Each structure stands twice: as C-alpha cells, then as structure tokens.
Automatic annotation (TrEMBL), chains A, B:
PANTHER family on file: ACYL-COA DEHYDROGENASE, ACYL-COA DEHYDROGENASE-RELATED
Protein name: Butyryl-CoA dehydrogenase
Cofactor: FAD
Residue stretches spanning the membrane: 511-533
SUPFAM superfamilies in the record: Acyl-CoA dehydrogenase C-terminal domain-like, Acyl-CoA dehydrogenase NM domain-like
Entry keyword annotation includes Transmembrane: yes
Gene Ontology molecular function: any one: flavin adenine dinucleotide binding
Record-annotated Acyl-CoA dehydrogenase/oxidase C-terminal domain positions: 279-445
Ranges for domain Acyl-CoA oxidase/dehydrogenase middle: 161-263
Domain of life: Bacteria
Pfam families: Acyl-CoA_dh_1, Acyl-CoA_dh_C, Acyl-CoA_dh_M, Acyl-CoA_dh_N
Length: 593, 593
C-alpha cells in the first residue's frame, strides 16, 4: 500500500521542531503526555489505513445520489461515522464531564491530517459534527446541549454549518433566511434556502443538525442582524421539521461527501432554536470559523501529502532515461528520481507539505494556549498573532496544495492523468480549498484590510518579532549561514515592500487593497520560509549532537535550501507590485474585456 | 449559449496584429484572400457551434468503453468525423491535385482553435488523421499514399501516432517494438505494444491507421535505429491485422477521446509497411512533432479561452458584495466584475489566452513561410527561430493554461467546483497539456540544451533581434512609454541572467541544465510580454487613427499593462536562480526524501 503521509515527519513536527508537550503544563491537558499523544496518533493511523483508505477510490467513483428526496452516500460511511463516535473522536476535545478526553486541538487536528490524507471525503463527516456540537456546547442553553449534543458525539447524528445562500456566498451580510418568533421562547419558524451545505443530508446518520445563520424578522441589515439557530432535520419528537433536500451538487472532487441544497420551511413548519443571544450569530460562527479555516489549510496539506507520497513512490520505481551525462544506451534506464528536474518537483512538494504542516501546527499550539491562557496581556498578544496568521495558514496550503498535487501528476506523466493512479483524484480534490471557508481573495482582504491594521498593527509587529527571534537564534548554526542570510535578505525586502504598501492607505481602500491577494501570497511565502529556517535549525541541532537518521535530517536541510533558492525568490515579483503606482486591475473597465 | 472564444480577438490577431495575408503572396496560397480565410473561419465556427459544442458535456459524462475488444465512443462522433472529411478539413492543407485546398497551416490551426474551444475531445480525431496522412504523403511511396490517404481524407479511416511504450515514454530511444523483414519488400512483421494511443481504437471509423515507431530487427540502439511504419488495424483486404486493443485508459479529462493500449502482432500476424527509409523514423516523426507541439499549445489556449469566456460571462452577471468603498448595505449588490481582484483574475486569463494565441499565430505564419521559402539563407534563419520558439510556444500555453482555467474556477467559487458549470471540465482537460507531446521538463532540456546552443546560437540571436526590433518600433508610441520601458528593463535583466546561465555549461550538463525548466518558464514570460507589446502597439495605432471599437483597443492596452505589471515581474525570481551557485536539486539524495 502506498503511504499517504510521513509518520516520521509528523513526529518531527510535533515533538522535535515544535514542542507540543509544553501544552501538558496547562492544567486542562495535565493528564496527557507524549505517550497519550502518540497513542492517539497511532490509533488515527489505524483507522485511516483500515477503514478510510480502502474506500478512497470507491467513494470517488460512486457519488452520492439524491433519491426520493434523500441523499444516499456510500454504505461504508455509516460504520465509519459510528466508529468515529464510539472511539471518542467527535468529542475528544471536550471535558471529561462532557464525556470527552480533554485532548489538545493540536493533536486533534494532526489526527485529522492523517484521516484527510487517507480519504478526504470520509474525513469530512465527523469534523463537521465536532464543529457544530462545539458551537452548541459553547453558546447554547443547558437544554439545547442536552437535547442535541449526546447523539452528535456518538455519531448517530450529523452536524453541519449552514451559511451560504443563493445570494449570499462571500457576502454573508446579504443572508436573507428569516426567523419568525413563535410563542415559545427561543423557538422560531425558519424560512429560506441554503446551498452548498456539506453533509447537509445523508442516510448514514439518523438526523442532521444544522447550525444555521438566519435573520430574525426586523433585525438590522448587514452582519449585525444575523443570528445563529439550531435547525434539526427531524425534531426531537422524530417528526420531520420541514427541511427539504432540494438538490445535490455533483462536484469535481471529494465526491464522497455530499453537498446539499436545502429548502427551509417551505411549508411554514420548520422550527429553529436560537443559539445564545439574538444578532450575535456571525460572531459565534466566526469563533468556529477561525478553527475551520485552519482546518481547511490542514485538509489541503493532507491531500498534498498523499499526492507527494504517491509521486515519490513512483519516482523511486519508474525507470526512464539515463543520467544526463550518460551517453551509453546499453546502460539500464535509471529511476526518474535521479533526474534533477524530477527532484525539483519532489522538493517543491516536500517543501509545501512540510512547511505548511509546520505553520499549521504552530497555529494549533497557539490556539490551544489561547483557550487556556490566564494572563490577559499574554492572551491578547497570542490572539493577535493567531488572528493574523489564520488567513495565511488557510491560504498558502490551499493555493500551493493545488500546485503541489499538480507537480505530483506531472511526475507520473501520462500515467498521472489516468484513473489508474490516485494523483488525478488528489488533483481534483485539492482544487476546493482555495474556495472553501472564504476564497483566497476574501482572505487577502481580511489580512491586509483588517488583520494587519487592527490594534495598531499588534499582530503584524508580533509576527516580525517572532521571525526576527528565529533569525537571531539561527546565527548559532554556522552551517546554516547561507540559508539564513538568504532568508534575512528577502525578509528585509518584504518588510520594505509591506511598508510601501501601507502608505497607499492614504489613497483609499480600492487602491490600498487592490493587491491584497498578492500581499497574502508574499506573506505566505515568508511564513513558510520562516518555518523552513526553524526546521533546518532543528535538523542541524540533531546532526550536531550526533543523531542517528542522518538521511532524514539532511533531507530537511536540503529542502530548506530548496525553499530559499526556488520558492522564496518568488516574492521579488510580488514586492515589485507593492512599489508600483500603476493599477491596471482598477483601471480596467468591464466593457473593455 | 456561452461564448467559447472571441471572434473579434481572433480577427485582430490574424488580420491586424499580424498580417496573415502576406501568405497569399506565396504562389501556393495565391488563390486565397482575406475573404476565403474568413469563410473558412466562419465555417469552423458554425460546425463548432452546431455539431461540436452540443456534445461537450455528454462526451465527458459518457466515457468511451472497451466492450468485446473494441472501443465504443459517443455515437455522435461518427457524423462529426464524416463531416470533417466531407467538408475538406482533414486534407485542407494539401494541394489541389491531392484534393486539398492549399490552405495555410495558420488558418488551419486557428480553425482548430475554434473546434478545440468548443469541444476539445471531439476536435482530437480529425487532427490526428491529418497528421498521420501528412506523414504518409510526405514520406510514403505512391502505393502507400494511394492505398491509405483517400479514406483518411474522407474521414472513413482514423489516423494515429503510435510512439509510447510501457518502457519508452519520455525516453523514445528505448522503444522496443520490433519489425521483422518479410519476403515482400517494404513489408514487415511487427511485434510489440503501444500505450496511450489517442484514438487508437474506436467504432466511429471503419479502420485505424497507425503511424508507428518500431525498430527493424538488428537496427542500431537508440534513436538512430528507429523506423516509421504504417500499421493498419485492418489490412486493405479487410482482414484483421493482429492489432488488438488490450485496454482503454480512463482519464481525468477530455474523456470523449479514447486512449488505447494496443498489442501488436501477438499472433505474429501484424503487417507493417515501412514509410520512407529505414532508421529515419524519429526524424520523420519529429517533422510532424514540431507542428504537433504547436498544436498542443493551441489546444491549451483553446481550453483556456473557453474557461475565460465562461468566467467572464459569470462575472458580469453574478451580483455579490458591494464596491469596497460602499458601506450602505441597502444598496444592491454589484456584479463581481466590479471587484479589483476578480478583474485581476480575468486580466490574468485574458493575458494568457490572447498573448499565447499571438505567439502561436506568429509561429504558424513562420511555419507556412518556411514550407515555401525559396531563399536558403532566409529559410535557415526562419527555421532556427521557429525551432527555438517551438518548446516555448508549446509550454507556456500548456503550463499557464492550467493556471488560467484554475482562475476561471476561482471566479465562479463554489459554483465553479460543481458540474453545473463547464469550468471544472475545462480545469480537468487543461491538465493534460504539460504532459502531451513531451513534458514541460523535456521541453526545458530541448530549449536550453539544444535549441539555444545549435548553430552558434543562431535561433537565440534571431529572437533577440526580433524582440529588439519590436521594442525600437514601440518608441514611436509615446502613450506606451511606461509599458515599453518596463519590458525593456526586464528584457535586459533576462538577457543578463541567460548569459550567466551559459557560463555554467563549463561545469557540465547536470549543473548547466538543472534549471532548464525555469529557463523555459522565463523565456515564455518574455515572449508573451513581447507579444503584448506588439498588441499594445497595434491597438494604440488603431486608436491614434480614430478607430471605432475603442473599448476593444483600450482593453488590449490595459491587458498589456497588466502583463507588464503582474506577470513579467515573475521572471525576477527565476533569474535569481540563473545567478545562483547553489544546487539543491542536484545535491538532494533520493534517500533523503
């Protein structure tokens, strides 16, 4: 069986390059240890290999279908979802009192990485339920929690996030699904429609619990008038709740996970239960959205990881051509991994996958610390840094995951384009991530238009400080001098360019934000280069102290060199834009296309 | 119906920006005129709209199947292939004596662009037959020509190019299919297998004529021992010829065109007819391959064009969000084409599609001139320039076509990921082109390792000369000063970087060629920027002389500005590599991955 992730690398990321064990000093996680973390990850690997992986191709070839108003999914998913529930994956993050394991999110999301790399479609179901249940337990009344969460934890019921509407995609302020008060407090009649609802209906669970954004009749316009409701497909009484599956979307990839078009309250008989306070819906949702966004980054890395491993295995086995200075045709062909350009495509993938994974784990540890930080000024700083990093950690893996899976296809050549190998499936699946949970363009605006600017640039300054610390610490490793110097030079140019961009604020938001996506891209490259500097340091330290597994550590340092030589220079073209005063994307008129 | 190409732009490219009418001064094309060219293109559009386009989705959803040893394709293809034959498309290039129309290849390939943009899968069949028939008429005996070509011209028989084998993909020198002499002169018994043979078997034609590379028993090793054979599926006598369809490949995209795995002579009963001289097969094939490579570039542009048009139509119609400085939520949402970042994605596509089309038409006109040039020193120069440009004109559209269709998906967002819109199909189809007819890596080696170096750099110097001419002529347009200056600056840096790269030859081929793919990428950006400088000049000239259609010409100039501001700066990161003396892609060991 082809590997779909590198266990060795994941352990390096968690226990060597970053120290996730410092989380066990937080009282909530005090029962945990390296041993429990490894057990969780091993158990994730087992489920991934034995249950999820075998369905990868089948679920792609046999898409869910809408039959008689109900979506039918792959029959194997019922067992898998129940297993996730029974083994405690869905509520692993929650407290012992809630039946959970008080697991750090860091370990939960890296377990997720293993599931997603094995079979992205299958991994979607339990993580959606966790997110929805988490919203109910965080903002809901005791009654709502008791009514809904236990069956969600067990995997009997599916949870969803129901945001998008036909006229409200990127523009959530235009949501028009309406909630009409009833005589019962907290109970509303909901009416509207929702589209693109992941796992919005299927036959592997007994009920579907939608966490739905809607506007209470008479609420203020825009995002300030949006509330969050629990809207089950069936009521607790088991009666239908007037949530009808109007359609199913057929997609390019991750076909195993159904996406539904729902009609809510077409017969004026849909009950929804207000979660928390009225008009706070978007705020509540965004609390989950930040984790969801890092989650999308992780999905993207996971698929890129599976594609990288598949193309690496192929490159080691497939003989084609000879070394470039070998003219003797009677010599046997060499495996294509011997060709520099194939190694370049592999190094590219390795640098994207392991660099992104490092950044996401950095963010996850930060997130776990924030949730339990008691010092308010420390917490404020941590939050500012994580808020700033979130659009980057969502977008870099998503955008580069597309290119990384494309490199995997390229290594396999014609074979990679056929369904005989899984890389074409990964290529199709990877394409969703620059769209999911906010498009890249939206995250560009979020980063430059909000995250960089808020609190007098606190998050931005903290990022600078952390990167500078990292550079300074790297000076101790003379073997890494060239690598560090490359990074330092480009980092200075980047900061200079970013400062230049800030001056443009003076010319109004359209000019200032016109290259926000490019700024996001450049920030991503800088952050991943930073993560590679960190990994090179960790590897060099291991080599200096005579570690075994020299191959592994040499590989880390060489990949860091690759990143500084091939990826980091890409910011030069981007920075040129920050200094430019020419704005063709603004000046272009729609009639001119 | 959504447009799939811009007729206005194609006319601009052929008759304004470049002057394809100068070809009518060549005696072979003397009967042609702007009127006949327009008639041909109009007629291509009609077939594309009425016959090809309606099958686009159906052919994707109902893939060819191998049933009882025979591949069944969409039943509509039989009519289409016959129509191509009857309307004279298959032999349009050939002389009146051969029943052809003496049409310039430039007009043939731009007609192909229209077919491919309408339905890439359907367009594949006739063009393969043209290529195969062309090989027979160029190198074959009178007997072979008379036996095989008439039914190919009529569309009754399919032609193919049968090169690839399980152990010989990029490495054609390793072909092992063998031809054993028989008593009949020119007749051989062929034995071996071929994979990935496009249109290698199907039920829309009565016979399949393979132009097959094989090695005559005892021939020298490597490319010098490869011969070209005509190998029909059925002999002229209508007996089967022991060419068995062993399998069909299911692919990610252009599913309507079948790709076959063929067993040749399993029962020692396959007859093949030697084409031309023994051991000249690769030379003959490459004569076609150069056109085939430009053809792949055109396929890539065509799909990118269809995706661009689909996303442009969507962006004009889809309301979402408000202008960035509009805070009043009671205002209606605006079409997304009003957002700068969406315009950026559209300008990117427009710049790739129209820039690549310009380069391909430039190459096509050059190719037509070469075929009829009588002055040997002029011809030598033209050939050197076209040889140099071919890997660029194949690879830039192929690589950027992938990114361009990806931008189309992004504009549609979630909708673009569903099968409700055609962009996801274009995205899947576009991915083949960096693989077809030589991967991008192979073309990088071809460009830097061969085309730049041969004849003391003749082709390379001619390219420099032509670009410099273009820059000098642009000085006459003061309105384009900034744009020209940007190009001139980057062009200088590129030449400086390229010179630096040449010094590395001294260190042997591995180092010299390790960044050949990056050199190809940078060369592509420079050539397309050059094409945009040319288009901007043509547009400015039209505006200066008071042309109507100002919107069209302003759009051209703005897109040229976009290219100089957003795409051209990407060479900076690439050039940095040419100056570097650090080689991680060489130093990386396979054990380190």
């Amino acid at each position: 069986m082809t590997r779909f992730y590198s266990k060795r690398d994941l352990q390096f990321q968690l226990f060597e390059n970053q120290n996730c064990l410092e989380l066990t000093q937080i009282p909530y996680f005090a029962d945990h240890s390296e041993e429990t973390f490894r057990l969780v990850l091993d158990s994730a690997e087992q489920i991934a290999e034995k249950s999820l992986r075998p369905l990868l191709t089948e679920m792609d070839r046999n898409e869910p279908q809408l039959i008689d108003g109900k979506i039918r999914i792959h029959p194997g998913m019922k067992t898998i979802i129940r297993q996730f529930g029974q083994d405690g994956w869905i509520n692993a993050l929650f407290s012992y009192e809630e039946g959970g394991q008080q697991l750090p999110w860091t370990i939960h999301i890296t377990s997720g990485f293993i599931f997603q790399a094995a079979n992205y479609s299958a991994s979607v179901f339990p993580f959606l339920t966790t997110g929805a249940a988490n919203l109910i337990r965080t903002f809901g009344s005791k009654e709502l929690i008791e009514k809904f969460t236990p069956k969600m934890y067990s995997g009997a019921w599916q949870g969803t996030m129901a945001l998008t509407e036909p006229d409200a995609g990127s523009s959530l302020s235009d949501i028009s699904t309406t909630a009409f008060p009833t005589e019962a407090p907290g109970v509303f009649r909901i009416k509207g429609q929702k589209i693109y609802i992941s796992a919005g209906d299927h036959d592997a669970c007994e009920n579907i619990i939608h966490l739905m954004l809607a506007r209470i009749q008479g609420a203020p316009a825009g995002t300030k008038g949006i509330s969050l409701f629990v809207v089950p497909k069936k009521r607790i009484s088991n009666e239908p709740n007037d949530v009808l599956t109007q359609g199913i979307y057929h997609k390019m990839g991750y076909k195993g996970a159904p996406i539904a078009h729902l009609m809510i309250g077409s017969n004026d008989a849909c009950e929804g239960y207000l979660l928390g306070e009225a008009n706070q819906g978007l705020k509540y949702m965004f609390q989950m959205m930040n984790e969801a966004r890092l989650g999308v980054g992780m999905n993207a890395v996971a698929i890129a990881s599976a594609a990288f491993q598949a193309s690496l295995a192929y490159a080691k086995e497939r003989p084609q051509g000879r070394k470039i200075n070998e003219k003797d045709l009677s010599q046997a062909q060499v495996p294509i991994i011997e060709h520099a350009d194939v190694k370049r495509l592999l190094l590219f993938q390795k640098s994207v996958v392991e660099g992104s994974l490092a950044l996401l784990i950095y963010c996850a540890i930060l997130s776990d610390k924030i949730a339990h930080e008691v010092d308010s000024s420390t917490k404020k700083e941590q939050e500012a840094l994580l808020d700033l990093l979130t659009p980057i950690a969502k977008s870099y893996p998503s955008e580069m995951g597309v290119q990384s899976t494309s490199a995997a296809v390229q290594i396999l050549g014609g074979a990679g384009y056929t369904t005989d190998f899984p890389v074409e499936q990964y290529y199709r699946e990877a394409r969703i991530h620059p769209i999911h949970e906010g498009t890249t363009g939206i995250h560009g605006l979020d980063l430059l238009g909000r995250k960089v600017l808020i609190q007098e640039g606190l998050g931005w300054k903290l990022l600078q400080r952390e990167i500078q610390k990292s550079v300074d610490a790297a000076r101790a490793y003379s073997a890494l001098g060239e690598l560090r110097q490359s990074f330092e030079n480009q980092f200075k140019k980047f900061n200079h360019g970013a400062a230049q961009l800030l001056f443009k604020m003076n010319q109004g938001p359209e000019i200032f934000l016109s290259d926000a996506t490019l700024f996001l891209e450049a920030s991503g490259i800088i952050c991943i280069a930073w993560m590679w500097l960190e990994q090179a340091k960790t590897a060099q330290k291991a080599l200096n102290t005579g570690a075994a597994e020299q191959d592994f550590y040499f590989g880390k340092i060489e990949t860091a060199r690759y990143f500084m030589e091939y990826e980091l220079p890409k910011i030069k073209g981007l920075i040129e834009r920050f200094h430019s005063t020419s704005y063709p994307t603004i000046d272009m008129k729609k009639e001119w296309f």
